[in-house]
Amino acid sequence: MLEVTRRRTLQALGLGGAASVAGCASNAPTADGSAATTTVQDTSTPAATDVDRIAADPTDIPDPIDRDEPTEHDITLRSEEVTAEIEDGVTFTYMTYGGQVPGPFIRVRLGDTVNLTFENPESNSLPHNVDFHACAGPGGGAEATTTAPGETAELRFQATYPGAYIYHCAVPNLDMHISAGMFGIILVEPEEGLPEVDHEAYLGQHELYTDKAAGTDGHHEFDMESMRNEEPSYVLMNGEKYAWTPGVHGPAVTAGTDETVRVFFVDGGPNLASSFHPIGSVWEKLYPDGSLSTEPQTHIQTREVPPGSTTIATMNSPVPGDFKIVDHSLSRVARKGCMAVVRAEGEERPEIFDADPE
Ligand SMILES: [Cu+2]
To answer: In this model, does residue 16 exceed pLDDT 90?
Structure first.
């Protein structure tokens, strides 16, 4: 592992943006946001992929905390620039934490200490870092973790307030890096923990700004102009079109009709707020902005989640079926790929819902 050198990092911040992203970006921005000239390749066919699936598994969440004392966590976050499919036949070069979108779910308890190792491997082409909204300190740790390819940085912080918080990349082109996938959740549980539930799911919404319309076959390159205009080609949950729905990777979570599902939702943005809604249900208990030091709201149909924020919300369905989790700005669902599914299994309850009454 190479030692962190400030000079090398600063050099990379100035020059790194001009390098192509994994060899296939013809318009990667420089530090001042202008387009750089790099190799032009044929993008009418999909590029070779580095990972089979960019969409984070929504059930890959550390277990709820059952502990009375603070502890320390040794956590490694690795920035990875990887090419993957947005949908069949459409590729994009993402920037990620750990090769997935959203990044790994980090779970600690109020008073715990995080010993973070932040890796920017040699195989990357750009500087990266991480800003934790759960970290009380300058930049949420962004400056302390700013690294060029080949460098590693360390950061230590204590979780001094409870809640579900976003973490995200915060280099000068931070909107581009978040749009390319660099965001995730760090959950700081209150001392008394969270109410017990049967299932938990982790979903992250964000926008992709590419040089082609959604659904156009081939390799999509990042497009600075459409990001400047806040006109994304895709709006996604977990980084892929309809990633966690039956037609793609399957439902995000399957629960019994007598069970409760808790959804941890983060809006990476970088620019669009989500109108977060479960079709055919309501959020039974919802913690606005992921705040765990205020009482939850109850029976909420749609809740705005701004970019750079989260919500924690529970749902259950007394009747079986597939419940679509959407941004109720519905063109993003119908045209731009934003949806996940929670499946409920159990006996029909015609006294509650009857699709074919006599
Ligand atoms: Cu980054």
So the answer is: no
Q: How confident is the model at residue 13 (pLDDT cuts 50, 70, 90)?
A: low
Centroid of ligand 1 to alpha carbon of 130 (angstroms):
8
Distance from the CA of 128 to the center of ligand 1, in angstroms?
4
CA–centroid distance, 29 to ligand 1, in Å, is 13
Which of 189, 207, 230 is a domain's end point?
A: 189
Cβ-contact 206, 101 below 8 angstroms: yes
CB-based burial label for 318 (10 Å; 0-12, 13-18, 19+): middle
Separation between Cα atoms, residue 64 and residue 56, nearest integer Å: 19
In a domain, 253, yes or no: yes
Q: Is the peptide bond before 46 cis (omega within 30 degrees of 0)?
A: no
pTM score, two decimals?
A: 0.90
**147 assigned to some structural domain:** yes
**Cβ of 356: how many Cβ atoms within 10 Å?**
5
Amino acid found at 205: Q
Same-domain pairing of 223 and 102? no
pLDDT in tens, 83-117: 999 999 999 999 999 999 999 999 999 999 999 99
Distance 142 CA to ligand 1 centre (A): 10
Looking at the structure, tell me whether residues 246 and 314 fall in a common domain. Answer: yes
Span from the CA of 162 to the centroid of ligand 1 (angstroms): 26
Residues 278, 131 share a domain? no
pLDDT digits (tens, 9 = 90+) for 208-253: 999 999 999 999 999 999 999 999 999 999 999 999 999 999 999 9
Do the domain assignments include residue 219? yes
What percent of the chain clears pLDDT 90, i.e. is strictly above it? 88
Residue 46 falls inside a structural domain:
no
Q: How many domains does the chain have?
A: 2
Which residues crowd ion ligand 1, with CB under 5 Å?
128, 169, 177, 182
pLDDT above 70: residue 45: yes
Tell me which residue range forms the domain holding 277: 199-345
